[in-house]
Amino acid sequence: MITEHISLKNLNSFGIEVRAKYFASFADKNSLEACLEDASKLNQSLSLHPLILGGGSNILFTRDVDGLVLKNEITGIETIGEDDDHVFIKAGAGENWHRFVMHCIEKDYAGVENLALIPGSVGASPMQNIGAYGVEIKDVFHSLEAYHIADKKWVTFNKMECAFGYRESVFKNKFKQQFIIGAVTYQLNKKPVFNTSYGAITQELETMQVTKLSIGAIAQAVMRIRSSKLPDPAVIGNAGSFFKNPEVEAAVFEKLKDQFPGLVGYRLDNGRVKLAAGWLIEHSGPAKGISWKGYRIGDAGCHAKQALVLVNYGQAPGSEILALSDAIIQSVWQNFSVRLEREVNIV
Q1: Residue 290 predicted with pLDDT over 70
Q2: Which CATH code for domain 77-189?
């Protein structure tokens, strides 16, 4: 059922107070189609360009939504197939991502343990090609089912058709706002291939005194690291990492490294280098001798423990957080001639 003038404050992790002119939720394919049909009766254009909300953890609202907002609540996790090496797990797009990770670990299915405690929903995982600690969704993705809004039919996408990139997929560019993801199927491993080389996982495992490596131990290490560095959205409004780590040519990295010996970068298979956006932000600032890390203006700020995270300390409107991100982008450009891109979707 479509309702009107609904607050979205509790449906976005920044806790921004905005309202949707029209709002509905759906828990299965049939109710999604019914919502869009009801919307078309109100106004044909409403049903063609709805804003889809999952966990609301990767969105910054800067205004009210003068249209239709649909909350994806399709849940459920099931094993739909297996072979000698893999198991195929299908999850509803509205399923909580961390809950899905924990389910896989309980079943001893490997591949997503490095992605523990990432906020959001299953449906956002292929859309954003979420990643952390050396693993991306494309590494475990098999297929997804999505509803084509204009054609009113369900379509299956394989990995190639999703055109995954760094925090990118076909659903963020070519097919933006054309499809609604209903379910995602992952190809997980029966025999784990441990990935502990990225970040501080190895050090954290040593601190935990882990003697026998397991996917559960890796997930626990990742959760401990994330909890120590990132604010809980239930306590301080945030969307996790606000910016992408920028990529530059190797020659550019070497030149920057000569100027800034502490610069952090990771060499990629394509010959380019991924720079640590957090380091760039931390070593820039609104004024000489002042770092963005821990900076606050009103209720908008840059988190004290992780410069990549912008936060809402209370009543900051989305426009103020967006303005802060603009200032950070500009200062990093002035200091390093490197252009940061936002990872968070701006509405």
Answers
A1: yes
A2: 3.30.465.10
Q: What percent of the chain is modeled with pLDDT above 70? A: 99
Q: For residue 134, which of 19, 274, 248, 33 has the smallest C-alpha distance?
A: 274
Question: What would the pLDDT profile of 291-337 be if each residue is shown by its tens digit?
Answer: 899 999 999 999 998 899 999 999 999 999 999 999 999 999 999 99
Nearest to 226 by CA among 117, 142, 313: 117
Question: Mean per-residue pLDDT for 85-96?
Answer: 96
> 166-195: buried (b, 16+ CB within 10 Å) or exposed (e) per residue?
bbebbbbeebeebbbbbbbbbbbbeebeeb
Q: Which residues are catalytic?
A: 167, 241, 343
- What are the b/e assignments for 228-261, b being 16+ CB within 10 Å? eebbebeebbbbbbbbbbbbbeeebbeebeeeee
Question: Rounded to whole angstroms, how far apart are CA atoms 215 and 53?
Answer: 30
- pLDDT of res. 342: 94
Q: Would you say domain 3-72 falls under CATH 3.40.50.10860?
A: no
Nearest 10 degrees: Cα torsion 227, 347, 95, 197: -40
Contact of 177 with 49, CB cutoff 8 Å: yes
CB 204 within 8 A of CB 225: yes
135 contact partners, CB below 8 Å, separation of at least 6: 111, 112, 114, 115, 195
DSSP state of 213: -
DSSP at 11: G
3-state secondary structure of 76: coil
Span 237-346: which CATH code?
3.90.78.10
Mean of the per-residue pLDDT values of the chain: 91
pTM listed for this prediction: 0.87
Q: How far apart are CA 256 and CA 265, in angstroms?
A: 10
> Which of 1-5's residues contact partners 24+ apart within 8 Å by CB, and which partners?
1/38, 2/35, 2/38, 2/39, 2/42, 2/68
- The DSSP call for residue 225 is H
- So what's the pLDDT on residue 146? 97
